[in-house]
From TrEMBL, chains A, B:
Transmembrane segments annotated in the record for this chain: none
Organism: Devosia soli
Name of protein: Tartronate semialdehyde reductase
Catalytic residue positions: K169
PANTHER family per UniProt: 3-HYDROXYISOBUTYRATE DEHYDROGENASE-LIKE 1, MITOCHONDRIAL-RELATED (PTHR43060:SF15)
Amino acid sequence: MKIGFIGLGVMGRPMANHLIAAGHELFLHRVKDVSQHLVDAGGKALESAKAVAETSEIIILMLPDTPDVEAVLFGEEGVASGLSEKKLVIDMSSISPVATKNFAQRIGKLGASYVDAPVSGGEVGAKAGSLTIMVGASETDFERALPLFQLMGQNITRIGDVGDGQTAKVVNQVIVGLTIEAVAEGLSLAKAAGADPAKVREALMGGFASSRILEVHGERMIKETFDPGFRIRLHRKDIGLAMEAAKALELYLPHSASLQQLMNKALADGLGDKDHSALIKALS
Amino acid sequence: MKIGFIGLGVMGRPMANHLIAAGHELFLHRVKDVSQHLVDAGGKALESAKAVAETSEIIILMLPDTPDVEAVLFGEEGVASGLSEKKLVIDMSSISPVATKNFAQRIGKLGASYVDAPVSGGEVGAKAGSLTIMVGASETDFERALPLFQLMGQNITRIGDVGDGQTAKVVNQVIVGLTIEAVAEGLSLAKAAGADPAKVREALMGGFASSRILEVHGERMIKETFDPGFRIRLHRKDIGLAMEAAKALELYLPHSASLQQLMNKALADGLGDKDHSALIKALS
């Protein structure tokens, strides 16, 4: 199938590679040296997002943030200007659920379809083709996109209609961030009270306090191994999306709001490019 | 062995029962109608905590809060007045780690030993003999108490010296409470944004957001089944212990402090005797 892929970053490169390896014809934009191997493998570099949209049946985006997606879709020589009926845009970036619904409406008016499908699993999951993919789409569009998702991920769920994929991703980031903060406060208390945090973590692993975060990030906190992983700076962006949604929806999320401030403090302390488990250092 | 057991509440009764069933001679105090079956099974009711301490080699306490333990230990006709050398006091209540160290010192001056061994697992775990037991004790005292712990629990860890058991329990309650709050904010956001919280929970269960709380309490939040379980009122007591420790240790625990206020709000909203998963209602 002719597939457009825009956004060849740390995540996008291995994802595009899986599609090429499966025999798809890929049309790329903004190919830099670091993504030249995709062209060597058969991908075709085009001069604009518009050209990618004109040439491809399905156009996949994997971009850093909401304004990047908006610019690639609706900017000059953007995807929208090259779309025609029955084409499908799949945004796999992690961006605003509110903006996503707006983008989908505008794409829909051109006769094309829109799916949001943010992922979790990081660079490791992207390379292994084992990403978790949270999808917002009509049932028809989901079925159409599913064979491509299966080349990139393993745990693929249609949450609901357009926007719901982005909502699920934001919820994931809220729960992950707040659970890290929970473990950080617990282990800080253990240490300050003179108990061995490693022993406490071990004793708690079997009960209701147990979580993937206590297991993985709890160990990072105890050993103080803060190489990313997932950077506090990037996680702060996602909590920002939660705060934006909370404002739009008039929703009370006191701990998410406080978490955003703790992340600001972590950045002020020079921890922005450390793993998010380093949030424990923002408490001390 | 001659064992004293003081505190025959919802937890204490089944715990004492396991000791009698294993053939130990139990000496009880404050036996009410609801604990009469322990006397029928061979337990002996005595008129004071002092008499229990005089008669028993090991004295176990399972009481509601710090002041109760202090009164039973050091009040008139209390345990301390009946202790002699080589006796062992085991406090299985969940109380202040700071006060625990003080109590242990005072008991130690009488030539007796002190172990703190709070539990988690609730009434279900107490009845099944499957409690998690977090122990603060010298190695010698731990070895001496272990056969009794094995009659009441399964996951038994010596965290460290006296007080460390209580610290681990408080840390457990902090992490559990804050993880409940994390899941509550996440699922509230999902619902407000129009995504199906059940679908979101399902999609998140495989990844870093996964926890026992997302699994068990997340489902309670979605189905709005808030029968305890563990009451918000009791959990608030434990977060109060964390706040007391934070004050004594000059420790910054912003989310625990905020959780305490959310629990106050839940009580103001009449939710004090609901399961702690009902904290999600304090957000709306």
